[in-house]
Design goal:
Blueprint: H1 3-15, E1 18-19, H2 20-30, H3 32-35, H4 43-52, E2 56-62, E3 70-75, H5 77-92, H6 100-106, H7 116-141, H8 147-172, H9 174-183
Antiparallel strand pairs: 1-3, 2-3
Helix pairs in contact: 1-5, 7-8
Length: 192
């Protein structure tokens, strides 16, 4: 799934012909970097790739005042087909990605087990800051959102709260986890 392709094609379908700077302003206005994995800085390169793939077409060059010339693009019929397919596949796709934290936690350093309570508390604190920031941003945005968009931004809040809840459960079980780690025998180290 390509979030950036979906965002760009959808923006051209919704708003019509634009140049890259207009698309960037639209992305900033929608604050997409706060609730998607789309980087605003990557939009220009992605527009060029979509044009090379025949999903966008250059329709004209325009110049406003002292600004440099800008290529204005429009979505093509092939771009609309791909957009439709992206919408369908993205809504159906389950995007579950393992958290690297889990691998690190499954391979704890026996020499640093005493640091775990502090490490886990720092992780909880960082997630709580992120959640508070997200809530504040979402509250500022809510008056301008559709009902569907409101559900989308609240999804991020739910995911962060779930992570915090899981970490608190982990934190409550740390004494047993540390005792279990200390009771484990050293692994055999085969010499190559």
């Amino acid at each position: 799934m390509s979030s950036i392709r979906l965002f760009i094609l959808d923006a051209f379908e919704r708003y019509g012909e634009m140049h890259g700077h207009q698309l960037r302003l639209q992305a900033e206005q929608e604050r997409i970097s706060l609730w998607t994995d789309v980087s605003v800085g990557a939009l220009y390169g992605a527009i060029k790739r979509l044009a090379a793939d025949g999903l966008l077409a250059e329709v004209r060059t325009e110049r406003e005042g002292n600004f440099p010339e800008r290529q204005v693009y429009a979505i093509t019929s092939r771009g609309r087909e791909v957009l439709h397919d992206l919408h369908q596949s993205t809504l159906a796709d389950i995007a579950y990605r393992p958290d690297p934290f889990d691998l690190a936690f499954a391979r704890l350093d026996p020499e640093r087990l005493d640091e775990l309570p502090r490490t886990i508390q720092e992780r909880i604190d960082a997630y709580e800051v992120r959640l508070a920031t997200m809530r504040a941003n979402n509250e500022r945005a809510r008056p301008y959102l559709s009902l569907g968009e409101d559900f989308v931004i609240s999804h991020g809040e739910h995911r962060l709260r779930s992570e915090i809840d899981w970490l608190r459960d982990l934190q409550a079980n740390l004494p047993a986890i540390v005792a279990d780690e200390r009771a484990r025998p050293e692994p055999d180290r085969a010499t190559p």
